[in-house]
Amino acid sequence: MTCRSYALVALVLGLALPAPVAAQTETRAAVAEALYRQARDLMAAGKYDAACPKFAESQRLDPATGTLLNLAACHEKQGRLATAWLEYSDAQMAARRDAREDRVEYARTRAHELEPKLSRLTLSLANGADDTALNIELDGASLGRAVLGAPTPVDPGLHTVRVSAPGKKPWSASVQIGASADQQSVIIPALEAAPPEAVAPAKVEPASTGSSSAPPSDELMTRPVPSSVYVAAGMTLAFAAGAGVSGLAYLSKRDDYDQRKLEPDAEARRKSALRYGYLNAGLWAATAVGAGVTTYLYVTRPARATSASARVLPWAAPDGGGLSVSGGF
Q: Rounded distance, CA 58 to CA 37, Å?
């Protein structure tokens, strides 16, 4: 292993320390809390278009059931009923996992009340349009054939349906969805065949001298995998395994804290969960760096020349062609 390889492996070990990652985690949580408070104030003032993105970013940085419920309520006020309905459903499952029956009941009630107000879009195929290779997209998201014939909840506004298949011309259509309980349908026609693509004939390069090409070299270039790649890969796998174990431990500690927040030792439980969270984040960071180092060592491995035994290669020239034999026997 070269000095450069040892230095890169040592870099991976140094990055496994969780202290910088812990600071990043705390920063994300602080930003998420600030966004949540701003969003609550904006929603209270009726500024839903400004509040909803802040709730969404807070949820992305530090997922929490309360934030998700507020995001769903904001989207409901904004008129995006299908999105709110899905978020209430997700919040219901999250609250059940947290053993918060009050939130489970609230999310279930809101989702149930929204369901009859949802606007829906139904996609179906015209006669002769069935094709197992169809790729169906709604607003750029691939839906798959299972969506056909199913009234799908969608937010109000303009939506685009695009259908494609190998060897066919793509087809698209737009449909305007109303604000509440609107029922729209789009019938997908049979796709037209695409014109065949012109294929350029292969170009044969003339020989530089005589009637045959120059004989190939008697050496072959190989790139053996150095031991540094295996060392870095093994360390990366070890970091990944540690990240998986610490992640499970963190989830267990966090759930224990969430369920026993009111007990005297709640603060100790919170700190214990945070320690596992910092360790988990550090191990995942080390895994990512290890994967990058392994890839770098593999891609930049040097080539070595080895002699060939015997090689038979085709050659072509304007006035003929044949086989070229080189190497030792």
A: 10
**Residue ranges with strand state E in the chain:** 119-125, 135-138, 141-142, 152-154, 157-164, 171-177, 183-188, 219-222, 304-307, 311-317, 320-326
Contact 186, 162 (CB under 8 A): no
pLDDT digits (tens, 9 = 90+) for 51-107: 999 999 999 999 999 999 999 999 999 999 999 999 999 999 999 999 999 999 999
Alpha carbon separation from 285 to 109, 122, 270, 288 (Å, rounded): 41, 44, 22, 5
What residue numbers bound the domain in which 239 lies?
A: 220-306
45 contact partners, CB below 8 Å, separation of at least 6: none
Rounded percentage of the chain residues whose pLDDT exceeds 70: 78
94 and 41 inside one domain: yes
**CA atoms of 280 and 242, how far apart (whole Å):** 8
pTM for this predicted structure: 0.53
pLDDT digits (tens, 9 = 90+) for 230-251: 887 888 888 888 888 888 888 8
Whether residues 113 and 143 share a domain: the answer is no
Q: Which of 117, 141, 160 is the last residue of a domain?
A: 117
Give the count of beta carbons closer than 10 Å to the beta carbon of residue 80.
20
Which pLDDT score, from 0 to 100, does residue 269 have? 78
- 149: Cβ–Cβ under 8 A, 6 or more apart, which residues? 122, 123, 124
Own/partner contacts of 238-247, CB < 8 Å, gap of 24 or more, are 239/12, 239/16, 239/283, 239/284, 239/286, 239/287, 239/290, 240/283, 240/287, 242/283, 243/280, 243/283, 243/284, 243/286, 243/287, 246/276, 246/279, 246/280, 246/283, 247/280
